[in-house]
Model the fold of this input.
Amino acid sequence: MNPLIHYYFGKKCLWTLANLVGDKDAIRDAVLAKNITEKITTIICLNQKSMEILRTAIWLLSNIARGPHFSLLSKVRHA
Done:
């Protein structure tokens, strides 16, 4: 696959997931149940030179961590 296409779709996937997680608690909980924070951590490590990817991945993590569900915060802690 062309690296630019891979980058574009990866960036759009992060952005879409951040929006969904930020809007619905049930989606956030489902995402956490799939251990997505490990995958986000990997994305951050592999894309340290791309500020767009880093910004979007951190926005996604902040959406996962916000809200009154402190018991779920332990799943995000390692990220």
Summary: The chain has a mean pLDDT of 80. The radius of gyration is 13 Å. The longest helix spans residues 3-23. The chain is about 70% helix and 0% strand.
